[in-house]
C-alpha cells in the first residue's frame, strides 16, 4: 500500500492579493455554473448528457478524431488563442 502525504498551507494575502483571489474565485465559480447550466439545458433538450469531447468539438471544431495534431496546431497557433 502506498503512503500518501498531504500538506496544508495557510495564506496571509495582502488586501490587493485578497481582492484578486476573490475575483479569480468568483470568475471560476461563474464559469463552472455557466457550464453546469449548459449541460442541464442540453440534457433537457436532447435527453442525454453532453460529453466532454462533444463540448471540445463544439468549441474548437471537429477533426479531433481524424488528425489530433492538426487540431492542436490550429489551437496553439500564435495569435489564435484567447489572449490574441
Q: What overall geometry do the principal axes of the alpha carbons give?
A: extended
Measured between the Cα atoms of the first and last residue, the distance is 47 Å
H and E string: HHH
Major sheet summary line: none
Structural class, judged by helices and strands?
mainly alpha
Number of strands: 0
Mean pLDDT: 79
Number of helices: 3
Q: What helical percentage do the residues reach?
A: 55-70%
Task: Determine Rg (CA atoms, Å).
Answer: 19 Å
Strand content: under 5%
Write the layout of secondary structure elements.
Blueprint: H1 15-46, H2 52-60, H3 68-75
Outline of this structure?
This protein is mostly helical and 84 residues long.
Amino acid at each position: 500500500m502506498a503512503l500518501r502525504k498531504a500538506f496544508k498551507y495557510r495564506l496571509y494575502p495582502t488586501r490587493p492579493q485578497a481582492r484578486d483571489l476573490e475575483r479569480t474565485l468568483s470568475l471560476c465559480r461563474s464559469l463552472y455554473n455557466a457550464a453546469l447550466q449548459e449541460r442541464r439545458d442540453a440534457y433537457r433538450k436532447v435527453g442525454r448528457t453532453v460529453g466532454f469531447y462533444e463540448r471540445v468539438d463544439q468549441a474548437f471544431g471537429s477533426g479531433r478524431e481524424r488528425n489530433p495534431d492538426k487540431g492542436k496546431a490550429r489551437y496553439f497557433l500564435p495569435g489564435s488563442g484567447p489572449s490574441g
